[in-house]
Fold this sequence. Notes:
This is Glutathione S-transferase C-terminal domain-containing protein. Pfam families: GST_C_2, GST_N_2. It comes from Brevundimonas fontaquae. InterPro entries: Glutathione-S-Trfase_C_sf, Glutathione_S-Trfase_N, GST_Omega-like_C, GST_Omega/GSH, Thioredoxin-like_sf. By secondary structure, this protein is an alpha+beta fold. The chain folds into two domains: 3-150, Glutaredoxin, CATH 3.40.30; 159-330, Glutathione S-transferase Yfyf (Class Pi), Chain A, domain 2, CATH 1.20.1050. The protein is built from ten helices and 13 strands. It has a four-stranded mixed beta sheet, with helices on both faces. A three-stranded antiparallel beta sheet has the order 11-12-13, with no helix packed on it. The chain has a two-stranded antiparallel sheet with strand order 1-2. The protein is globular. The model has no long low-confidence stretch (mean pLDDT 93). Glutathione (GSH) binds at residues 1, 26, 55-57, 86, 121-125, 139-140.
Amino acid sequence: MGMVIDGQWSDEDRIIEDGAFKRAPSLFDLEIPREVVNALRNESGRYHLIASMSCPWSQRAILARQLKGLVADVPLHLAGGERIEGYPANGGDPWRVPGTDRDVVHLHELYTLSLPDYTGRVTVPILWDSQTLRIVSNESARIMRAFDASPDPNSLDYTLVPDALSVAIDRLNLQLHDGLSNAAYRAGFAESQAAYDTAVRDVFKTLDGLETRLASQRFLHGPVITESDWRLFPTLVRFDIIYYLFSRCTLRRLVDYPHLWAYARDLFSWPGVADTVDFDAIRRAAYVDHPETNPFGILAIAPDIDWRAPHTRAQLGPALVATRTGDYRTVEPVKRTAI
Ligand SMILES: N[C@@H](CCC(=O)N[C@@H](CS)C(=O)NCC(=O)O)C(=O)O
């Protein structure tokens, strides 16, 4: 896939160790300061989200932007297309860097504009400051938290990380990352049987645990929807179309888990959420953009499943959100504008 070393693009990769895929830490991974959180709305148009519809980590940021009503204030730019020198910024065409009169073709140029001697991977999502011309963050978890912390003046101002649940949310997020969301990539990119075996075991152990958990409660932490749910959702969306086959997670499909599958459709039906899902982009990026694992670029047919089928989860109780003052309210859906 390639990376940037001392400010220069290199086709070298440092992501496999002993046959196992190791996700590199994000370099721009500091807590996003309060001034930035406040400026997201107060200085509308200053911060830009660069993301890809195929990428689950990007989808987390896109979801938070959508759910927290930041669509008009934080413009979204979609990167994607054939990976030559990593992600193209605009499908291979020139792309004007927000805040400059400079055009770039590859996303790595944004990284080196921000940090000329950058060494690391060139990943999405990116939160870009068009005033200082710096990457504020390239870590979806940080971006989600910053978007969540921005009070929404046009809707019920709820938080996805209520104080009373924050420890449980952090703990579960970590388990879901290690045991499922990242494990699906460990399975897919494994270069040894042992690495694959470990990863795929983690994936299904985690899915089995989620199925039990969601049999008796509407969301991961009970009746209230939280960040953990929205971090899990992009992984579930991708399961049957890419992780099952492309990543060889072939023990079971999402649709084989009745509670988890209904839960995923419940989240999909949330206002604005379907707009964050591009099934075709997800499939194409996996099958066509990875010639090392799929040399003929043959696009597997999409499974015949209906994400809009009724989900019946309301029988477990109403969906609640947590206000910043700590009480719970039933959700009044707000129709969000398209992304
Ligand atoms: N820790 C990052 C991971 C982001 C990430 O790995 N994104 C993938 C796309 S799904 C990427 O940009 N990969 C390109 C590469 O590693 O070269 C986050 O959650 O924001």
